[in-house]
Amino acid sequence: MLRSLYGDKNYLIYLANDIKGISMDSSFNLQAPDIKTTEKNNAIPTVILATRNTGKIQELKDMLCNFKLHILCLEDFPEIPEIEETGKTFEENALIKAKVVSQYTGLIAIADDSGLEVDILNGAPGIYSSRYAEDIPNIHNLTIDQHNISKLLSILTNVPLTQRTAKLCTTIVAYNTNGKYITAKGITKGLISLTSKGNNGFGYDPIFFDTNLGKTFGELPLKEKKQYSHRTKALKKLLELWPTLYNEI
């Protein structure tokens, strides 16, 4: 089943567009609801994070640590191949991943698709953030994140700091075994710094400068970063809708 889905890009997109989901973009309460209210027959809900990105897994598990959930990730299902992100938006890509993983495992799947949008570059790298520099030879054997950052800083070399406005965007999708899903979005605005600063986080964190904090996300410990993260904002919105999703199983 999974391999047939994975091997047919058009069918994946068709599946993603075929579902009648529940979308939500409104402002959220800073206090997420108690997941325990959604439990059935005192069973602890099991969810799977549809990612192998260790940075995302660490952040999501940390954000969900106060809720009564049994959390798995794709490392627990090594037979699942990489899922091609053929969507044209963050939401489409997150939905593709969540749907495939939920159908394969029979579990509620949580997937996010995130990226950096730089205003002066008309929103680039956007949905291509994780593979932004794949068109440039990596002659210095940099990590993927370092290679992407190097390309972006090179493009912005002559752009003054005041014109380096950008935002980190996340769309999270939770997809249940009945084919219902919920979505939520989170955005954090900032600037692209002139140089990389800090070794924490992942992705573009070392060059994403939060003007309110006076630091890059790479300089923040995880505990502090999650208070301002685009991913936290999206996840809190998603948790508000959790009973709607879980009660339909």
UniProtKB/TrEMBL annotation:
<dbReference type="GO" id="GO:0017111">
    <property type="term" value="F:ribonucleoside triphosphate phosphatase activity"/>
</dbReference>
<feature type="binding site">
    <location>
        <begin position="202"/>
        <end position="205"/>
    </location>
    <ligand>
        <name>substrate</name>
    </ligand>
</feature>
<dbReference type="GO" id="GO:0009146">
    <property type="term" value="P:purine nucleoside triphosphate catabolic process"/>
</dbReference>
<keyword id="KW-0546">Nucleotide metabolism</keyword>
<feature type="binding site">
    <location>
        <begin position="230"/>
        <end position="231"/>
    </location>
    <ligand>
        <name>substrate</name>
    </ligand>
</feature>
<dbReference type="GO" id="GO:0000166">
    <property type="term" value="F:nucleotide binding"/>
</dbReference>
<dbReference type="InterPro" id="IPR020922">
    <property type="entry name" value="dITP/XTP_pyrophosphatase"/>
</dbReference>
<dbReference type="Pfam" id="PF01725">
    <property type="entry name" value="Ham1p_like"/>
</dbReference>
<dbReference type="GO" id="GO:0036220">
    <property type="term" value="F:ITP diphosphatase activity"/>
</dbReference>
<comment type="function">
    <text>Pyrophosphatase that catalyzes the hydrolysis of nucleoside triphosphates to their monophosphate derivatives, with a high preference for the non-canonical purine nucleotides XTP (xanthosine triphosphate), dITP (deoxyinosine triphosphate) and ITP. Seems to function as a house-cleaning enzyme that removes non-canonical purine nucleotides from the nucleotide pool, thus preventing their incorporation into DNA/RNA and avoiding chromosomal lesions.</text>
</comment>
<dbReference type="InterPro" id="IPR002637">
    <property type="entry name" value="RdgB/HAM1"/>
</dbReference>
<keyword id="KW-0378">Hydrolase</keyword>
<feature type="binding site">
    <location>
        <position position="84"/>
    </location>
    <ligand>
        <name>Mg(2+)</name>
    </ligand>
</feature>
<dbReference type="GO" id="GO:0046872">
    <property type="term" value="F:metal ion binding"/>
</dbReference>
<dbReference type="GO" id="GO:0009117">
    <property type="term" value="P:nucleotide metabolic process"/>
</dbReference>
<keyword id="KW-0547">Nucleotide-binding</keyword>
<dbReference type="GO" id="GO:0035870">
    <property type="term" value="F:dITP diphosphatase activity"/>
</dbReference>
<feature type="binding site">
    <location>
        <position position="225"/>
    </location>
    <ligand>
        <name>substrate</name>
    </ligand>
</feature>
<feature type="binding site">
    <location>
        <position position="114"/>
    </location>
    <ligand>
        <name>substrate</name>
    </ligand>
</feature>
<comment type="subunit">
    <text>Homodimer.</text>
</comment>
<protein>
    <recommendedName>
        <fullName>dITP/XTP pyrophosphatase</fullName>
        <ecNumber>3.6.1.66</ecNumber>
    </recommendedName>
</protein>
<dbReference type="GO" id="GO:0036222">
    <property type="term" value="F:XTP diphosphatase activity"/>
</dbReference>
<keyword id="KW-0479">Metal-binding</keyword>
<dbReference type="GO" id="GO:0005829">
    <property type="term" value="C:cytosol"/>
</dbReference>
<keyword id="KW-0460">Magnesium</keyword>
<feature type="binding site">
    <location>
        <position position="113"/>
    </location>
    <ligand>
        <name>Mg(2+)</name>
    </ligand>
</feature>
<feature type="binding site">
    <location>
        <begin position="51"/>
        <end position="56"/>
    </location>
    <ligand>
        <name>substrate</name>
    </ligand>
</feature>
<feature type="active site" description="Proton acceptor">
    <location>
        <position position="113"/>
    </location>
</feature>
<dbReference type="InterPro" id="IPR029001">
    <property type="entry name" value="ITPase-like_fam"/>
</dbReference>
<comment type="similarity">
    <text>Belongs to the HAM1 NTPase family.</text>
</comment>
